[in-house]
Write a structure and sequence with these properties.
- The protein is an alpha/beta fold and 303 residues long.
- It has a single domain, classed as NAD(P)-binding Rossmann-like Domain (Rossmann fold, 3-Layer(aba) Sandwich).
- Helix content is 42%, strand content 12%.
- The protein has a 7-stranded parallel sheet with strand order 3-2-1-4-5-6-7, sandwiched between helices.
- Strand 4, helix 4 and strand 5 form a beta-alpha-beta unit.
- The longest helix is centred in the middle third of the chain and has 26 residues.
- This is SDR family oxidoreductase.
- Pfam families: adh_short.
- InterPro entries: NAD(P)-bd_dom_sf, SDR_fam.
């Protein structure tokens, strides 16, 4: 019996990257997973990328779960509300909500001060990163709290500890990623009376489809990218954070993490899961102790 058999998850923003990795691993654990996004086989978002929600749903089903693709723009309250009504009608429950909508890789201008950064792009980034999560939680949580032990996972970039001490390359990006961590803390407070849990989870340096394309490699030969960027040696696959979320979802004592900010690497040490290559990359410790410290790239002791 798989640990998440009979459970229902919504991964909001599952077209690619972390969302896809999380959806697959929830499926591998036996869950029914609704995967949402804007890009389908007949329509692309402004990303203009080939990955689709239908592909993600098929990967979920192939992993052992049931994947259900639904095209949703999470900035549109009517579309989100219709999604939750559909989940309620079809399943009668919602056990896990993973807010991973991002969609702003091409909007941030790195190391550009706010007075020079495009205001239009910056505000759009904030809407995609923050408003989508709030809108989705607004409509999804009344269904989730009907049962005890519901779990909300807010996916961000960086732990609270790291982000508190480091400027994240752009005021808009910094604000977006820090806000999502705070959102998990707020949701933890609001969900506690209902015996439900909210956690902020960050992957490390993740080998998303976009990141692999940036370095001109594929998952199978990702280490070739270390010639161009040696610190890429600490990178992890999207399935690693997927296994982190699946571990949380299957933990009957997940409430111990309520309101916390944790990384995939930290959760791997607690739950004993591994990345696809059998390693346990601890990216955020590596960033502080090796990369930010100006030391040569060397992942020994960090994966």
């Amino acid at each position: 019996m798989k640990p998440l058999n009979g459970k229902v998850a919504l991964v909001a923003g599952a077209t690619r990257g972390a969302g896809r990795g999380i959806a697959i691993e929830l499926g591998a654990a036996g869950a029914t997973v609704y995967v949402t996004g804007r890009t389908t086989r007949t329509q692309r978002s402004e990303y203009n990328r080939p990955e689709t929600i239908e592909e993600t749903a098929e990967l979920v089903s192939n992993a052992g779960g049931q994947g259900i693709a639904v095209q949703v723009n999470h900035l549109d309250p009517d579309q989100v509300q219709a999604l939750i009504v559909r989940i309620e009608n079809e399943q009668g429950r919602l056990d896990f909500l993973v807010n991973v909508v991002w969609g702003a890789e091409y909007l941030a201008q790195w190391n550009v001060p706010v007075w020079e950064h495009s205001l239009e792009r910056g505000l759009r980034l904030l809407r995609l990163a923050i408003d989508t999560h709030i809108i989705t939680s607004h409509f999804a949580l009344p269904l989730l709290i009907r049962n005890k032990n519901g779990l909300v996972v807010e996916i961000t970039d960086g732990t609270a500890e790291y982000n508190d001490k480091n400027y994240r390359l752009s005021l808009f990006y910094d604000l977006a990623k820090t806000s999502v961590i705070r959102m998990a803390q707020s949701l933890a407070h609001e969900l506690s009376p209902h015996k439900c849990t909210a956690v902020a989870v960050t992957p490390g340096w993740m080998r998303s489809e976009i990141m692999l394309d940036h370095y001109g490699v594929k998952e199978e030969n990702w280490r070739d990218a270390t010639v161009k960027e040696p610190h890429f040696v600490i990178s992890e696959s999207p399935r690693f954070v997927g296994r982190a979320v699946a571990a949380l979802a299957g933990d009957p004592e997940a409430a111990r993490w309520n309101g916390h900010s944790v990384s995939s690497g930290k959760l791997a040490q607690v739950y004993g899961f591994y990345d696809l290559d059998g390693s346990q990359p601890d990216c955020w410790r590596y960033l502080v102790e090796v990369q930010d410290a100006g030391k040569p790239a060397n992942a020994s002791g960090y994966r």
